[in-house]
């Protein structure tokens, strides 16, 4: 199905007929990593001006953390530009580390006005959990912001909370995770389950007898989040309000060399 | 002997206490600081008063400080602030690392922009030294360092061509807003949280208004009706902040930064609101000292020792955040933390004066 979709034309742009799968280190079979959603405003931007403006905002910067690999924005930018030939992807990083969702929500409105972004990548939840923000308060802030963005014709990708072994049994942290999932579901927006991805990767590494350190897992969280996100955006450009759910699209078939 | 309490020290102490609370995101008491009902906040007050304090270094018009001494003093002060900033940043990084170890939680290594320090230490340490990498909530002192570095220029322009200083400052400010000029961060991609090209305006305003002549003199002569005009702005600002009636950034005309609320760029609505607030409360000190003299004494003590208190407050805010996370917050924990933090800030200030007396 995906290959068929990819063979079609979006915005008059030529695309690769297939997408490369996420790297082996990021493969997390069975995990609900990408909850897909259509990205109508990004599609329109692609069609009308062959340019996508992406605003990265939220708690932890997903800017360049590894100069050798080009960083996380670069992963997304390069993937989209490779997939959609001729498209220009511009990413504005306005991440303020440690910023609570309620403060980010206000800043997002300003930044959307300034950058005229088509898509917001919002890493959300972890700083609120560290600051012990009540779950209801957090959920209300994110819901309001997402609703405002939809009203202002801007697509959103919620990037869920970070994984840490210590937080696996923490009821409050888990309830914050659930809150992000619920907002994404209620508002029908794209969500990347970073926690799920890293948790599954950790289990796989353990099964292989190659346990990962916390630092490696954190790093994997960023890299894999970017890999999944890039593909989810590409898929979202083709999707037209498909039923949200965990789909095979999260792990598209590998491109035959 | 330390100087007796005065309005500038009192308000500076007030700003320091407020910044301490505001820098503990999620704490129950943050909703009781004045930013909840104000467009501008304690950062504007702090930087404005820094500009105001410049008058003491510059000297009186009839007895100006020689230019070479001015340059030496302000550069030295800037270096002191830089050293203080580096010290508290290193302590903050160590605090996050120790907490991550003790609580066995690597998420703390990612907090407040510290992640790059641990994941890309070579570049990030260069960035820390160059001030191009800043930790969250440790971003006011870099602005202050830059402002003091340009302070001799401000003082000299004011001395040689006093009528040019404010227009020049305003031009830089407006150019930054119109062309969205920012100072980039490195190695993490982003921008300075406090854009010095914009925040210099409030510093220059503080300095200009502190002077007896020029704009400062005019304001003093007209303060009564300025105060009357200011109150509606302050009340309107309270309503805007309380009800979140902010202008919609997608609907205002270009250049958008002239019409919206943005702390990084210190947008005009924040400057105007702060000036109105300053005018409206310009006579409040006389009343406050009559009603709560002990509070004035305490906050003036903080204000007189602002660098020590600011550094202690920054580290205490971070400590409170870590403790809140470890203990899961709650009103009792929050109350104890705020009370302990403010008492410790007072202790630091008292010790600084005790040391000076002991010399």
Secondary-structure map with pairings?
The complex is a heterodimer of chains A (257) and B (359).
Chain A: H1 2-7, E1 34-35, H2 40-49, E2 51-58, H3 71-83, E3 88-93, H4 101-115, E4 119-123, H5 126-130, H6 135-151, E5 155-159, H7 171-187, E6 190-192, H8 194-207, H9 214-238
Parallel strand pairs in A: 2-3, 2-4, 4-5, 5-6
Antiparallel strand pairs in A: 1-6
Chain B: H1 7-22, H2 42-58, E1 59-60, E2 63-64, H3 67-102, H4 115-119, H5 121-130, H6 140-160, H7 162-178, E3 184-185, E4 190-191, H8 196-210, H9 214-221, H10 223-243, H11 268-280, H12 284-291, H13 293-304, H14 306-327, H15 331-358
Antiparallel strand pairs in B: 1-2, 3-4
Helix pairs in contact in B: 1-2, 1-13, 1-14, 2-6, 2-8, 3-6, 3-14, 6-7, 6-8, 7-8, 10-11, 12-13, 13-15, 14-15
Mean pLDDT of chain B: 94
Instruction: Specify Rg of chain A, calculated over alpha carbons.
Output: 17 Å
Termini separation of chain B: 11 Å
Summing up helix and strand content along with how strands pair, one would put the structural category of chain B as: mainly alpha
Q: Report the helical percentage of chain B.
A: 55-70%
Q: How would you name the oligomeric state of the polypeptide chains in this document?
A: heterodimer
Q: For the record, what CATH class of chain A applies?
A: Alpha Beta
Structural class of chain A: alpha/beta
The helix/strand series of chain B, from N terminus to C terminus, equals HHEEHHHHHEEHHHHHHHH
* Side-by-side strand order of the widest sheet of chain A: 1-6-5-4-2-3
The number of helical elements of chain A comes to 9
Proportion of strand residues of chain A: 5-15%
Salient structural properties:
heterodimer, A: 257 residues, alpha/beta, Rossmann fold, six-stranded mixed β-sheet, 9 helices, B: 359 residues, mainly alpha, two-stranded antiparallel ribbon, 15 helices, 4 strands
